[in-house]
User: Fold this.
Amino acid sequence: MLSKEENELLTRVGPGTMMGDVMRQYWLPFLYSWEIPADGPPLRVRLLGEDLLAFRDSAGAIGLLAERCAHRGAALFFGRNEECGLRCVYHGWKYDTQGRCIDMPNEPAESSFKERILLQAYQARERGGVVFAYLGPKQSDPPALPDLEWTLLPEAQVHHGYKAVLECNWMQSLEGDLDSAHLFILHGRLRADDQGAMGVWHPDRSPRLEIQETGYGLMYGARRDEPDGRVYWRTSQYLFPVHTIFPASPDGTVPCHIWVPIDDEHTLAWDVRWHPTREMPNHQMTHLSPELAGMGPMKPEQKGRFFADWWPEIDQWSDFAIDREIQRTQTYTGIPTIRLQDAAVTTSMGAIFDRSQERLGTTDAMIVRSRQRLLQAARELRESSIPPPGADRPELFRVRSCSAVLPAGVDWRVALDDWHRARTNELMVEQTAEAGR
Assistant:
């Protein structure tokens, strides 16, 4: 378990916090490119506890600026996005994407006052149809974007499942993907011979974990024994600080989750799936899509709130649509989808659960190791200026995960290494029917 002090360190991400400093070493996705058209309205964004505005100027450049005008503090959300700048409607001060004030219509024409005004601006870059933000100290020379495989593939080979605001802290959400033990319980069906639509099934619900440190974070294999003496392995990747890649489906589709801290009590959750060689069906997605990869529909625009289009309709305030009759007769939870099942348990802990009150077992080993490595990274950055894992090594992030049935005694690390490192596009091992998630 964590001490209260360690739990605070892990979950607090605002400016000046130790985990906030770690997060600011990395690029974090926060928008789809289609959300901000040129000269379109600015969007309210909150990242790492900072209230910001995103806009795309007339030339297509993206700005990520402090929310309020440097003059009198009026909200730039109401501003006019026009002629390569965002103009405050109060007195007309206009800012470019770098935060420079380029016009002051309420000051004398000969005044040089505007040249001394610089609004806080952060780097924003696009890749793979997504906009990433860098809130770190190297604004003039930021690190390269991470080489996540899905950002390097043709658009048609990538499926964006959903983006959604969750009402709990980022680590609480992410840890669900580090916990292989809950798979065949939380997401399980009640009877082995029922249809797969009722949930997953495996007779061995107590996996043995083997964990490996990597240059970008951690990887683990969860071992379960098959009745014929072979071994069923589920491998998962944790790419610091917010990406988790869980096992590929039998056809080679690789799924990824991203858990971006909005602030200490809200998380922007992403689902992305890709195939290394073929097109994905239904790869187009908007916030108006009726069913977002199991997350369900979004609420109407939440005016006045950050990420206004991405608040799920099914949430803790609707008890995640639990059906007690289905829970009694068909599935373990009675909650309709895997995504909602995960969200239900993580948000039910509260915004920030006191981890000094939990009691961990052997199958929680990956959660324990991840917390330890995050705490180590935060201390090394604060005390010795050592970059956290992968922050300056973007090439390390092109990795995958999988599930596979291997003969007893075969080292999963060796057998699956080419797939894990994206050196092959063929997963040349037999997979169990329950490989997908």
The chain has a mean pLDDT of 92. The chain has two domains: 27-134, 149-420. The CA atoms of residues 9 and 397 lie 25 Å apart. The two ends are 28 Å apart (CA to CA).
